[in-house]
Automatic annotation (TrEMBL):
Single GO molecular function: 6-phosphogluconolactonase activity
Gene3D superfamilies xref list: YVTN repeat-like/Quinoprotein amine dehydrogenase
Protein name: Lactonase, 7-bladed beta-propeller-domain-containing protein
UniProt xrefs under PANTHER family: 6-PHOSPHOGLUCONOLACTONASE-RELATED, CYCLASE, PUTATIVE (AFU_ORTHOLOGUE AFUA_6G11580)-RELATED
UniProt superkingdom: Eukaryota
InterPro entries assigned to the protein according to its UniProt record, in alphabetical order: Cycloisomerase_2 (IPR050282), Lactonase_7-beta_prop (IPR019405), WD40/YVTN_repeat-like_dom_sf (IPR015943)
Family: Belongs to the cycloisomerase 2 family.
Length: 417
């Protein structure tokens, strides 16, 4: 099955592409149980659907191993479970399922890491989280080494373990390799759980760190800086990006920046903050928000990252004047905000391009960003040229496909090659 949907911009002259190689992408879906293999051709600015695969259920958030030869997926399907997939020849040969494993409660986010003695797979959602080892023969899920609890042990049996619990429970998990730490944002606690990663890959709780703000922000997704000194968090309920200095046993707030423009501040509660990602070089941070209804479009905002991990430039305030957070500087707006074509539905998730050919650490001025849409089922490739974000390609999942694939919504997409 091949569906070609070039962007309206496809016939316009593009900047010299980062690469002329066709890149393969794997996308999950929200409303059906399919995974989609996509191909992006930068020379023609076309994104195509190459094939769909029957998966374990709706809503797949995806993670890859370091070699991008294995993919790991969550699902909202029942019973709660996780699945592992072989990625064949960088996606050119498609994917094949390795195995599935049962978990206690529906998981939301997942990540692969080699911080311990051996590789581990980390997931979290609602009242629980998990640490699995990796089967050395297949690369799939092995044994569950640890179950993380976000309710009292005696409350777990009666706790909601469905996708509903993701609205007020743990929502993500991200590892901080330089400091051997892990972070789990928790919407209901309005906090970020902070862990040490032990030698066997299991997690030891350090602190439950309150989110900056008025107690109703709901941190949803976090990502650490490349050097491990700073943590970035996006809040679901208020659409802010918070910047924290990572201490040994706490988080110290440095900045708060708005994903939505000042003109939308009076309707801030009409948005839902979603995901954030750093560019490969760590020189830019992208953050997204979604509209609560179809009447409200979402945003992708991009900031420059300073040497100390803070975001954007800043100007001194008048003498004696303090910003809301008590600092003596006023943060500038992001370098650009891109209004999405739809509300994003439950998605507007982003993933940055990981295959720049420049030497590691070079601050690229151009980047490609995957953006997923749940409302109408689109996956887009956005380009950041150091000044503006623009759409260069897009494809709508499920269009012209089988009846059971209609109405799908793109959940999260990753670059395979």
């Amino acid at each position: 099955m091949t569906a070609v949907c070039p962007s309206p911009l496809a016939n316009q002259s593009l900047l010299q592409p980062i690469s002329s190689t066709v890149h393969y992408i794997l996308s999950g879906t929200f409303n059906t149980l399919f995974l989609y293999l996509l191909a992006f051709n930068p020379s023609t600015a076309e994104l195509t659907v190459e094939r769909s695969y029957r998966a374990e259920g709706p809503h797949q958030f995806l993670a890859l191993n370091e070699q991008r030869t294995k993919a790991y997926a969550t699902t909202w399907g029942a019973p709660a479970r996780l699945s592992a997939w072989d990625v064949l020849d960088g996606g050119r040969g498609g994917i094949e399922k390795i195995n599935t494993v049962p978990i206690t409660a529906t998981s939301s986010y997942i990540q692969y890491s080699t911080l311990g003695d051996l590789p581990r797979i980390y997931s979290a959602g609602g009242p629980t989280g998990e640490v699995h080892d990796v089967d050395p023969l297949t690369g799939g899920f092995g044994n569950k080494l640890q179950e993380l609890l976000y309710v009292e042990k005696h409350e777990l049996e009666k706790a909601d373990k469905t996708r509903v619990a993701l609205r007020y429970g743990s929502h993500g998990i991200d590892l901080n390799p330089p400091r051997r730490q892990a972070f789990v944002p928790h919407l209901g606690h309005n906090s970020i759980f902070m862990y040490n990663v032990l030698d066997d890959g299991t997690l030891d709780l350090i602190a439950d760190c309150p989110s900056f703000g008025d107690g109703h922000d709901g941190p949803r997704h976090v990502v650490p800086s490349p050097d491990g000194s700073v943590l970035y968090a996006v809040t679901e309920h208020t659409s802010f990006v918070d910047v924290y200095s990572i201490q040994d046993s706490s988080l110290s707030h440095l900045q708060r920046l708005s994903v939505i423009p000042p003109s939308a501040s009076s309707t801030r509660l009409s948005y839902r903050g979603d995901t954030l990602r750093l560019s490969q070089s760590g020189s830019y941070l992208y953050a997204t928000t979604r509209g609560m209804t179809k009447a409200t479009k979402g945003f992708v905002a991009v900031w420059s990252v300073n040497a100390d991990g803070t975001l954007g430039s800043a100007e001194l305030l008048e003498e004696g004047e303090l910003a809301r957070d008590g600092s003596k500087t006023q943060d500038h707006a992001p370098l650009d905000r891109f209004e999405t074509k739809t509300s994003g539905g439950k998605a507007n998730a982003v993933e940055t391009f990981p295959f720049h050919t420049s030497a590691k650490g070079v601050k690229e001025q151009r980047d490609w960003v995957l953006l997923t849409d749940d409302e109408d089922g689109w996956v887009w490739v956005l380009e950041w040229d150091g000044r503006k974000i623009k759409e260069i390609a897009g494809v709508r999942l499920g269009e012209g496909a089988s009846e059971e694939e209609k109405g799908t919504g793109a959940s999260h997409a990753v670059w395979l090659s």
